[in-house]
Write a structure and sequence with these properties.
There is one protein chain. The protein has one domain: Fic-like fold (Orthogonal Bundle), CATH 1.10.3290.10. The model has no long low-confidence stretch (mean pLDDT about 95). The longest helix has about 30 residues. It contains ten helices and no strands. It is globular. Helix content is about 60%, strand content about 0%. With about 280 residues, the chain is an all-alpha fold.
Length: about 280
Amino acid sequence: MTLDPLLQLPGVREAVERARVACEELRWHEAYRRRWREVRAEAGLRSVRASAELEGARVPLSVVRALATGGLSHGLSDDEPVVAGALRAAVVVEELMPALGARGAAALPPFGQLLARVHAAATGGWLPAEHVGRLRVDLPPADLTGLGPALVGDALAARVDLLSSTVAASEAPALVVAAVVHAELLTLRPFRAGNGVVARSMARLLQTTRGLDPTGSLIESWSVNPYLGAAAGFATGTHPGVAGWIEACSAAAVAGAARARAVADGVLAGALPQD
């Protein structure tokens, strides 16, 4: 499988360019000269909250920050494991992101190992241990049930291997690679649960390590229904469905760059935005 032909789909090249321009303009914000670590960290907290919201766990940013700093003195009932898991996954991803301005390609663990590591971070403590970091063998996924039937066992493992080899060999633009990995993981749902958090974490990492967003600070927020609708379109495998998903990812990147810019402004001003 190769990703280069996707650039020939209507609207995809334009979508890639829009995301590239938005991220390039963000990169030259003054805050990234010396305070990029602060911006990345603040953006990461907002990305965690946005990802958890797609899982149905809606919490204030202050709660995510308290979890990150160990300052939460009370539980969040059913929401706490999901939010804490999304936060742990973000920590794994951010540890693998290169420093802003670093030269050379980032060295990442093998794809399968990386998937397992991110999943273990996202679900350890609330998913039964026999499912943590392990591809499904015979059970169906317990999440993202609106995306149709999912492969199991050897067929699932083979598809994940194909995705791994495709990513390793691809020189397609980072937006395309990240979008395909994101949607494939939503479609395959390789794990029993926690697939959405893993998919979004992997996409964020690939956007950074492959150079679309070297700042590592895009804050992509999706509304649930458009998000799942676009993912379902990709899952059909049709040209309009795949192109529509990539365009949706581009729009999310452009909007995420605008949100990151607001955070960068706040870091310089000493008054961070509250969203």
